[in-house]
Amino acid sequence: MPTPPPTGPLVTRDTVAAQLRELGVRPGETLLAHTSLSSLGWVCGGAVSLVQGLLDALTPDGTLVVPTQSADLSDPAHWGNPPVPREWWDTIRTSMPSYDPLVTPSRGVGVLPETVRTWPGAERSAHPQTSFAALGPRASEIVAGHATDCRLGERSPLARLEALHARVLLLGAGYDACTSFHLAEYRVPSPLVQVGRPGPDGWETVTEVSITSDRFDELGHDFERDRPVLRGKVGAADARLFPVADAVAYAERWLPLHRPREEEIPSGGDPAPARLSRGPRT
Length: 282
Fold this sequence. Notes:
This protein is of the alpha/beta class. It has nine helices and eleven strands. A seven-stranded mixed sheet has the order 5-6-4-2-7-11-10, sandwiched between helices. The chain has a two-stranded parallel sheet with strand order 1-3. The protein has a two-stranded antiparallel sheet with strand order 8-9.
């Protein structure tokens, strides 16, 4: 039986750059991108062409930022994709390599972030579970000082992106992937949680604000209804473009009304943030 032809449309580096400019991406701006490569169609050159197209649209004066989360560096007691036997937990905790921004791969956020992470000149932030990588003249400024006990809050790249008037690009990704909404969770009543992970001196536990993307799709629907969001297409993918600051401010008002979370979550039971899944890759 013959192999079916690839599903189109055909997308090239030039296609990406031109359609991003048509959407409203501006030369020299700072862009936080959440992407789904497969949603674009048949991309000639895959993730490399997508990164090149994004950088072409931004020009050398612009900065591209992506989430490079590493959910593997977490407590195996809470893995569910897949779960591992209880008798393995202690060995996993003592054997798991600690975070190294140059070596630790990203997980659960798509192929483009891993491509950006390994791109010449890329810089990556220091948080062992919710890092960001950046390319461009503002990269160092954005990723510097990411506190290891502040996943997505005031001492993370998200707060710097907000201050720099960066915009979010959702490219084939939904609002459940919008990490900017998490910054609002640090500014509204939220429970704390104990988070386990490997550290440079062995297994460690830190107290963190509990974060979850639960109902972010509803939050995004209301945000898009009430606030200006540029919409278009890149290849076959739906694309949305909006300021980080607008998303955070809207979520600060929406979350206490529609998803109050003042109750404490048991130790280690923190729901995962957007696009961050548990457990080793199968």
